[in-house]
């Protein structure tokens, strides 16, 4: 079963944006996130080497699509979740509306057998999705820390 959750985020302008974040660095726990954002921008993704942040300029009429931890788990690391953050603007408010696509909380999550190549071992154990979410929210979304909980 699939569930969807939607958030509505409002980040007021901040005269000194260096002292706050709209959202600190994290990965979404979802399978996929569809992000509707206004033209203020502020979405940054961590670079592939992990040492820089890349600004994602909003494109009129386009959605940003983020891979979340759940898809990384189900694909046995073939698809990687995207660490991202949101910066505030000094003069304009920012609005974003993410739609999170998830498995139901009573589902068992883990690598799909079809994603394992011949002889490949699973990277993650199978657990109840609600147990993963309990851990995810206890740790407060931060980087990729939640994936360590389910790794074998």
From TrEMBL:
Residue stretches making up the Fe2OG dioxygenase domain: 1-103
SUPFAM superfamilies associated with the record: Clavaminate synthase-like
Gene Ontology MF: a single term: oxidoreductase activity
Superkingdom of origin: Eukaryota
Protein's UniProt keywords contain Ligase: no
UniProt keywords, alphabetically: Iron, Metal-binding, Oxidoreductase
This protein's name: Fe2OG dioxygenase domain-containing protein
Organism: Solanum verrucosum
Taxonomic path: Eukaryota, Viridiplantae, Streptophyta, Embryophyta, Tracheophyta
């Amino acid at each position: 079963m699939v569930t969807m959750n939607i958030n509505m985020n409002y980040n007021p302008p901040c005269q000194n944006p260096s002292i706050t974040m709209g959202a600190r660095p994290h990965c979404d726990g979802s399978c996929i996130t569809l992000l509707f954002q206004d033209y203020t921008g502020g979405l940054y993704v961590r670079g592939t080497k992990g040492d820089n942040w890349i600004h994602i300029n909003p494109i009129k009429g386009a959605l940003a699509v983020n891979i979340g931890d759940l898809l990384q788990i189900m694909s046995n690391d073939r698809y990687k979740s995207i660490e991202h953050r949101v910066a505030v603007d000094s003069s304009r408010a920012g609005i974003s509306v993410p739609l999170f696509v998830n498995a139901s909380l009573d589902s068992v999550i883990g690598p799909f057998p079809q994603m394992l190549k011949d002889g490949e071992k699973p990277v993650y154990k199978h657990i109840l999705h609600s147990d993963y979410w309990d851990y995810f929210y206890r740790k407060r979304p931060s980087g990729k820390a939640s994936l360590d909980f389910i790794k074998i």
